[in-house]
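P.,

For your records, the input lines for the assembly:
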Amino acid sequence: MDATKARTAANGETPVEQRLIFFNQALREAIDEEMTRDPTVFVYGEEVGVWGGSYNVTQGLLDKYGPLRVIDTPISEALIGGAAVGASITGSRPVVDFMYQDFMGIAMDQIVNQAAKNRYMFGGKNALPIVYRAAFGAGIGNAAQHTQSLEAWFTHVPGLKVVAPSNAYDAKGLLKSAIRDDNVVLFFEHKALYRERGDVPEGEYLVPLGVSDVKRAGANATIVSYARQVQFALQAAEQLASEGIDVEVIDLRTLYPLDIDPVIESVKKTNRALVVHEAVRFGGFGGEVAAQIQELGFDYLDAPVKRLGAVHAPVPFAEPLEMASFPSVESIAQGVRELMQGI
Amino acid sequence: MDATKARTAANGETPVEQRLIFFNQALREAIDEEMTRDPTVFVYGEEVGVWGGSYNVTQGLLDKYGPLRVIDTPISEALIGGAAVGASITGSRPVVDFMYQDFMGIAMDQIVNQAAKNRYMFGGKNALPIVYRAAFGAGIGNAAQHTQSLEAWFTHVPGLKVVAPSNAYDAKGLLKSAIRDDNVVLFFEHKALYRERGDVPEGEYLVPLGVSDVKRAGANATIVSYARQVQFALQAAEQLASEGIDVEVIDLRTLYPLDIDPVIESVKKTNRALVVHEAVRFGGFGGEVAAQIQELGFDYLDAPVKRLGAVHAPVPFAEPLEMASFPSVESIAQGVRELMQGI
Amino acid sequence: MAARKPKAAGKKARGASKKSKLPGKEMLEWMYRTMVRIRRFEEAADRAFQAARMRGALHFYIGEEASGTGVCAALTDSDYITSTHRGHGHCIAKGGRLDLMMAELFGKATGYCGGKGGSMHIADLDLGNLGANGIVGGGLPIATGAALGSKLRDDDNVTVCFFGDGAAPNGTFHESINFGALHDLPIVYVCENNQWGMGTHVSDTNAGPGIVTRADSYGIPGVMVDGNDVFDVFAKTTAAVKRARAGKGPSLLVCETYRHRGHTVHDQAAYRDQADVDEWMARDPIERFRKTVTTAKAMSKKKLEAIDAEVLQEVEAAVEFAASSPFPQLDTLLQGVYTDV
Amino acid sequence: MAARKPKAAGKKARGASKKSKLPGKEMLEWMYRTMVRIRRFEEAADRAFQAARMRGALHFYIGEEASGTGVCAALTDSDYITSTHRGHGHCIAKGGRLDLMMAELFGKATGYCGGKGGSMHIADLDLGNLGANGIVGGGLPIATGAALGSKLRDDDNVTVCFFGDGAAPNGTFHESINFGALHDLPIVYVCENNQWGMGTHVSDTNAGPGIVTRADSYGIPGVMVDGNDVFDVFAKTTAAVKRARAGKGPSLLVCETYRHRGHTVHDQAAYRDQADVDEWMARDPIERFRKTVTTAKAMSKKKLEAIDAEVLQEVEAAVEFAASSPFPQLDTLLQGVYTDV
Ligand SMILES: Cc1ncc(C[n+]2csc(CCOP(=O)(O)OP(=O)(O)O)c2C)c(N)n1
Ligand SMILES: Cc1ncc(C[n+]2csc(CCOP(=O)(O)OP(=O)(O)O)c2C)c(N)n1
Ligand SMILES: [Mg+2]
Ligand SMILES: [Mg+2]
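Structure tokens returned:
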């Protein structure tokens, strides 16, 4: 059960006072609290210190924790990726900022061949409490090399966990869990969410990794998504409600380990599923989700599982092209309509 | 229609004499012929020259074409990946050897952000006739960092084509097509196939990219696969035939662009599909294929599309563990049996 | 209007004119016009951005004009360059058209890339500009590959690879220069040390006695350049290009310069020391050029002003062209990913 | 049997014994035993491989024993190393157990990694061995991160990062050493230049006057080491470790050495010049050690032979242990990927 909902609907009577903060503030609080709690937690990456992180997530931390625990690095992504392995297996807990997911290709070997495999290939003894953070997603005119959604790559690599929150509340709770996790966690932050506000309670709470969340209950169709597209899905659901289509929206939150049960439970009820992500449709994570839905819920499906994702092109710069290249509230609503008609 | 079959069953009477050569010889012939045909084709990578390629694919080419067209590089994978971009857009046709697919992580940025996006983001004018070759796959005790099957990563990146042949005949014809293609082609060679022989005719022929091939016709179930697992699937099909299960085996050959039509045609007939690959099952290319099959063939399916792939672990070294970690003839046969029972 | 470089900048040996230490008149005019085109173009882009006529981000080259200009003055039209995220100046110096560039920044169909690239992704193969790059350090292997291609094809071209002080600690720097040096490739690696990479000073990202000293360990010349003096840049690039064209291999040039603005249009650059800023501002390359040529009586104030006026007009026309151009049609969305798919 | 390093190799300053230029008796014995353990272990592994008792590939360290041994002699048990694909020697020199190693090479459940790693993937965190690596150059960032961790945790450990001449042109070399130098990390980068990377000579992969000269451009000491002389390796590593431990930052040591065998067990190394091979063979580090210590009367022939015999026995026992151990159970297949999933 999601604490946001618990808070806003407590007793159905006196809702607790909200504390609306930005998504990036929520992330900052998570790191700050964990750095205070555990002296082995430290932050490094490009521009995390003086600059405060390219989206201000680490602002103020250098002043608070000093240059030994908040380290600006050169533009050396392979070093950045691999140093976390050495630091973590020897007893530190790095929270690493890659800025943009797009830059992680440079560090791919260190993440995939070194970090992800270290524990298993060396016999299962090491702990690698690493969080690799990166911004991803489209919509703000950053063009082809600063806009990708590459989470599918990482879900395919055993040894990695993959998280992608959709709101400030989850972001904080998930990041705290990620920092406390003894495994390598990829933490992906949709860049269009940083300046969205969410209700985040004061004080300590965690959102566990590997637990999907029903963000909206509904009877006629199930939308499965994560990160910013959950917000679009919720808006589409509102629109569809006025058309008499009652949509359930499930936020995966963690892509690996994948909590598919709530999705299958939902499909048993709605008999229809739409999987939505901002990543390119072809070869995207939606394929895994769709495949699992039909594997586990075949007898309940009244229509093929439908997938929405970005077109098969790099992300274009021009606004009309960029906006047409990935799912929108409207295309999601249309997707559900088609799903209802079995198209 | 596959020329191998045409040759062995010509007129059903006098089969043409076979020319059995190794998979790596077939690849060498492809490169050799294309280098002779087109002086702008050149080869570079680690150990392609004196050594002749880690699996002897480029053996003899240095002597034949000299050090300007067969270039040994240092262990500098990012340079190796990116140099192809500069060379190709200015008029050369590089055939690049990455040795192991596992090492491509180091060059991931150059392949994904530079090569794949160059044409589109610069307005669709440039040609990038690049072939990136690499060995992949498990089964020979190479352990975690030399055994991965990472093709799914590349299928997810617009701007790339992805090829993975299953036999010597296709390998030669596909590689020649890849070298003549004006786009970036990832050419993946299963390392356990290099020393398998296949019937390869003398002289010129091409196998087009983007065309799936029915390697065995059957009525009861469809196996969709590529690379070495096609061979396993064909063996499993023989086994199953003796049990009265008539299996159709489709070799995708090219993963992008994906030729799904023959798969859907097949499923219309068999009503059952099993997708098999050696890559990790979760997040693998099988998800895309399974999702497309149920999208396009939903009404014809009598059971959920089933997927087989490697377990969710790095590839272990010990033989019993490694062999148990990815699909085998036996597990494919068992998969089909389960599929027939709707499990 | 035409910004054609004088023939003198062709493949034949050239450089300082014989009479004075300054290049000839045509070249001087080209240099001045080029530097002013860069600055005015970016000032106009800045205004357009502030007026919300553009989106994304812009990385201004203002203050570094002498570097790109001096380098490209030493190149032929068929020589290649690779550029960076801060690429407007390189593109203009290599002969790029302001109207097509501005339209691209506006995301218009008439832009260099049909609106698909934006500020960080402009290329013009016809002018030998192999493209800007959103990935810091991403251009080094590409440039090296272009030079390798030239060697294979024996096309007599030289490639110039621009990159920043921030890219110098990247693995691509090392891999590329090592390879270029091993094969004596026709390439000049030009590090534009503008002292900063986002908010991090070069001294916090590059260990050792200076980026230029790395050249020694690859066995290639390392040359310090006053990146705010277009003549110094021109002379030293000319020598390096000559060497490269003669098959003697790469050089590493480090142009010491300064970005006047923040890292992007969004950045106020509060992390900088004002004294340092002032010192560098005083070395403004355009001002310096004006002073030098007027003092030497190589160009008249009138001529300079005439060029100023022409450029202003060109820039205005470019903005007008961009503003009045249509956005790309949605049916172009999937065009250009492949040649055939 | 015990291969414990003498206390003298602890954190306190040490090095050459006072009387002669040679280290003390205990250290001499440890050095000899270590080098012989490496060689005999690999010879036995080779036999087992040829007898098809192993699969995959083996990269022999034979001929390079003085390098790993001399380096590790200068380290404490809690100091860290990162190793390479050619990692048997490093593992043994850091105190690794032959039985667990051999069982791992056999892919047995009793091996260092339960059979999951194999020859290229052995680590022993208890001994500070952070692991071998199948990715050339892959260990440099990891080692640098371990040293960063030591600085943060103030644990007084030094990390030694082993890598080959073939790894030196990789981007990780540059990124790692630059970062190590920027932060004065407690690390020693040890390049084992065995002249070859697979079939490519070091002169064809590394431009410039020598890998060691790159140190200059990062502002750290670059030290040439006779990698076939365990005493030279020991002395120079000791100095570099001392410097690192004192917070003065990294050094780059280049140990000139030679691999006697082909690149892997499969390689006949036909690409080598026989005169060159002969010259290097004559510098065999174990033979040299024997000659030096017997000439100096620092160790008796009898003692050397006693150690030879003990090591042979240890190796035989290791093979026996490996051969008689069971393969891993299939239920271990998914164990160890995560701590919890
Ligand atoms: C690989 C990569 N890492 C990080 C970034 C984010 N980034 C963009 S520009 C920049 C600083 C670059 O500094 P420098 O190379 O000196 O170029 P300058 O901006 O000074 O022109 C950074 C960190 C990026 N674009 N690419
Ligand atoms: C990143 C990467 N590229 C290529 C290889 C294949 N490979 C294994 S060892 C080797 C040569 C390494 O040479 P060097 O670093 O000198 O080590 P040596 O083998 O001499 O000990 C190569 C090319 C690899 N394992 N990893
Ligand atoms: Mg800079
Ligand atoms: Mg070597």
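Two observations worth noting. Confidence is low (pLDDT under 50) at residues 8-19 of chain D. Strands of chain D lie at 80-82, 159-164, 187-193, 196-197, 200-201, 222-226, 251-256.

Regards
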